[in-house]
Specification:
Blueprint (H helix, E strand, L loop, with lengths): L3 E5 L6 H9 L17 E7 L2 E7 L11 H12 L5 E7 L6 H11 L5 E6 L7 H6 L9 E2 L8 H12 L22 E7 L5 H9 L17 E9 L4 E9 L12 H16 L2 E7 L6 H12 L3 E7 L7 H15 L8 E3 L8 H15 L5 H14 L11 E9 L4 E7 L6 H15 L7 E5 L9
Parallel strand pairs: 1-3, 1-4, 4-5, 5-6, 7-9, 7-10, 10-11, 11-12, 14-15
Antiparallel strand pairs: 2-3, 8-9, 13-14
Helix pairs in contact: 11-12
Keywords: GTP-binding, Nucleotide-binding, Repeat, Ribosome biogenesis
GO molecular function: GTP binding
Pfam families: KH_dom-like, MMR_HSR1
Length: 458
């Protein structure tokens, strides 16, 4: 069960607009006239990786319990029973009203943690209402504009300490372990230049001539997806795979035929839906610039990358070739240094079990989540070992980090003066994370968030 967060406030302060903003869809009716919402409405939210159920409620009105507004208020009161948190929405442009103060007194009598949301705070028109909201005695307000999406990161920061301990099991699994929610079939796309042997490799895995192959380059046009079961010799069990064959990707300048353009576009589209992408090289041609461009595209799309050298059975100077490609990959793909490199032969089947094993291991890393506590222990150690710089003598404060998602791993760092944080320090954090938390060579995304402070100049 997801923890519930209930939106409460008097009519026409923007509760349903906030509900729609958090859910990401226009589920709740919104209108300028008050009292549009009457019943509770539920929606699932994932806010920067924080999962909860949001509850929209009717506007609170001080009416007799037997009247329609009174019964609506009873629905709102019932919604708070068992809730993990409440968002008390006020209209910062209108300022506090006696009804706001009455709602605040009622909320103070409950045991539910309350966050005041000063809505309609875009521009400076809401500043006075924001200051007035401190008088409610419910802590620091979160200045927001639900209509324009401003202040969402600050709302996340306010809810994180309340909701993080209540997250579903899959949010707080140990590194690499997720027994509650087993992964589906491995979505494995094979990409590369024309005639690298992509279709031949898939036929060898299937042990049948499932795909058309031949010496001509560019036989494959459509991206073909095939469901298959691989027997893992190490685990002694069957594992499901969806193999995706793609068209060869030549240099863009050489692609003039309309069908080839469509085929290459389809191949790029297949990358977007894959989990792990195997870039297949031709051992007789080595690593070319176009291969690095394909690899860079895979990484930019956030997919896990493996490089396989095909036609290993006919390679000249195999050791020198392998080491040369390893060095060129580390130089050309510095952002994912150490990407897995496997030697295979699609013709004989050599190395294919190693390739599949590496693909499953890489997906596990790509899908990994780190508990917030462990993540922040690493964060503190990383900053202690190499503190953030102080450009102009002013310290850059990095407060904490949280993982907002996986597939690929995504993180948000909160702090102040983050616009001045050098890219070199971001790279340091990413490289330390790869080394210390076991993220290896999968793409890692870090976002920097500085909470807006409307009182900084006061």
């Amino acid at each position: 069960m997801l923890p519930q967060v209930v939106i409460i406030g008097r009519p026409n302060v923007g509760k349903s607009t906030l509900f729609n903003r958090l859910v990401g869809k226009k589920l709740a009716l919104v209108d300028d006239q008050p009292g549009v919402t009457r019943d509770r409405r539920f929606g699932d939210v994932e806010l920067l990786g924080l999962k909860f159920q949001i509850v929209d409620t009717a506007g609170w009105e001080d009416e007799d319990a037997e009247t329609l507004p009174g019964r609506m208020r009873q629905q709102t009161e019932a919604a708070l029973v068992g809730a993990a948190a409440a968002l008390f929405v006020i209209d910062s442009r209108a300022g506090l009203t006696p009804l706001d103060e009455e709602i605040a007194r009622w909320l103070q009598r409950t045991s539910v943690p309350v966050t005041v949301v000063a809505n309609k705070a875009e521009g400076k028109a809401g500043d006075s209402g924001i200051f007035e909201s401190y008088a409610l005695g419910l802590g620091d307000p979160v200045a927001m504009s639900a209509e324009h999406g401003e202040g969402v990161a600050d709302l996340f920061e306010a809810l994180l300490p309340i909701l993080d301990p209540l997250q579903p099991d899959e949010h707080a699994v140990e590194l690499g372990e997720d027994e509650e929610k087993p992964l589906g079939p491995l979505q494995l796309a094979i990409v590369g230049r024309p005639n690298a042997g992509k279709s031949t490799l898939i036929n060898q895995l299937l042990r049948e001539d499932r795909l058309l192959t031949g010496p001509e380059a560019g036989i494959t046009r459509d991206s073909i997806a095939i469901d298959w079961v691989w027997h893992d010799p190490k685990l002694g069990e069957d594992r499901r795979v969806k193999l995706i064959d793609t068209a060869g990707m030549r240099k863009r300048a050489k692609v003039t035929d309309k069908l080839e353009k469509l085929a290459v576009a389809d191949a790029r589209h297949a990358v977007d839906f894959a989990e792990v992408v195997v870039l297949l090289l031709d051992a007789t041609k080595g690593l070319e610039h176009q291969d690095l461009k394909i690899a860079a595209h895979v990484v930019e799309e956030g997919r896990a990358l493996i490089v396989a050298i095909n036609k290993w059975d006919v390679a000249e100077d195999p050791s020198g070739l392998f080491n040369g490609i390893r060095h060129a990959l580390d130089e050309g793909l510095a952002q994912v240094k150490g990407v897995p490199l496997v030697a295979v032969s699609a013709r004989t089947g050599k190395g294919l079990d190693n390739l599949l094993g590496a693909a499953f291991e890489t997906r596990d890393i790509w899908n990994r989540r780190v508990p917030t506590a462990a993540l922040n222990r690493w964060f503190d150690d990383a900053m202690a070992a190499n503190p953030p710089p102080a450009p102009g003598g002013k310290r850059i404060k990095l407060r904490y980090i949280t993982q907002t998602g996986a597939r690929p791993p995504r993180f948000v760092i909160f702090g102040t003066r983050l616009d001045d944080l050098p890219a070199s320090y971001e790279r340091y954090l990413v490289n330390s994370m790869r080394r210390d938390l076991g993220f290896g060579s999968v793409p890692v995304r870090i976002m920097l968030r500085s909470p807006k402070n409307p009182y900084a100049k006061s």
